[in-house]
Amino acid sequence: MAVVNRTLDASEQRKVAGIKSGVVATGLTLPVVFADQPLTIQAAQAAFFGISGSPVYLLTCQRFINGSGATVFEVGTTFAARAFGTSGLLPSGISLPATGSSLLNLVSGDVLMVSTFGSNAAVSGLALSVVLLPTQDIRTYFGLV
Amino acid sequence: MGIINRAKDITDKHEGMPFAFANLSFSNGETGVLAYVPFPCNLRDANIATFSVVGSINLILTVNRFIVGAGFTSYTVGSTFALRSFGTSGVFASGLSLPAFGSTLLQLMPNDVIGYLVAGGSTASCSGIAGNIILTKTQDVTRYFGGVT
To answer: Cα angle vertex B49, ends A33, B61, to 5°?
Structure first.
């Protein structure tokens, strides 16, 4: 419950997190979001600057469950970088699973990552934002607070 | 559209300050920055995930504060913690160790900078760090950087 005895409008419940980085070479895996509470990924968008070659990116989620260890799963499909100065942003944002997919559900402690692929490819600057929707009425942070 | 004449539920007064860095290296005594505080708040919790850790290293949270006339101060918050590999150990079960709730060390002012100090261990590096610092605003009417309401 966001406001005492009131529910926030859906558009006010969302929050944005992401990564801003300088040079990103191919083969890297960068942390983007550390989920502090249960969240659903609603949208993601990226801007690329100074592209060399044809770098390709993929969102993944790393999850650690005590007793069963770490797992990694892909979120959406690969997407190619496009120069912000030439083509702007991705027209439909980063391609994500359809709304309702369990792949979009993050639990507290998950880390959303972005991996880069492509030979001899890099960008001089990357800004990636993810729109997240908390799923709890009464929020708990890291399952504690 | 904001909300006027309503108080937010306590769980919604918290605000996460996420940070994510790639390809960090650490050496003893080195400092780094994690978050910039825009409003008066209490530090409620923090946690961190580290990937591809090489070596072993201990960090401690710090608060850097500059007051005009008095100058710069820096103090440590909580106790040291060792970076642990996410793929092996996940994140800290109870978050980072912070002072007891109510400690003045947890009270932050606008323009404070939360950082870290490498407080021991061997030279180390990691491919990525992602963390989140949970802050609770202390003002009913929040002022950003002391001026903007």
So the answer is: 105
Whole-structure pTM value: 0.87
Q: Do B14 and A66 touch (CB under 8 A)?
A: no
3-state DSSP call for residue B118? strand
pLDDT for B35-48, tens place per residue?
A: 999 999 999 999 99
| CA nearest to B82, candidates B58, B54, B102, B61 | B58
Which DSSP symbol is given to A70? E
Token duo for residue A73: 């799963």
- Mean of pLDDT over chain A: 91
Among A114, A112, A145, A136, which Cα is nearest to A24's? A114
Which of A36, A39, A107 to mutate: most B Cβ within 10 Å?
Answer: A36
CA dihedral A45→A51→A56→A57, nearest 10 degrees, is -40
| Spatial contact of B98 and B36, defined as CB atoms under 8 Å apart | no
Percent of chain A with pLDDT over 90: 70
Find the CB nearest B11 among A69, A70, A139.
Answer: A139
ipTM above 0.90, yes or no: no
How far is CA A11 from each of CA A8, A14, A96, rounded to the nearest angstrom?
8, 6, 19
Q: Which residue is listed with tokens 């100065």?
A: A85
Task: Report angle CA A22, A30, A139 to the nearest 5 degrees.
Answer: 115
Beta bridge partners of A47: A127
Optimal mutation site among B4, B8, B11, interface A, most CBs of chain A within 10 A: B11
Taken in order of first residue, the domains within chain A and their CATH numbers are: 14-134 (2.60.120)
Cα–Cα distance, A70 to B127 (Å, whole number): 17
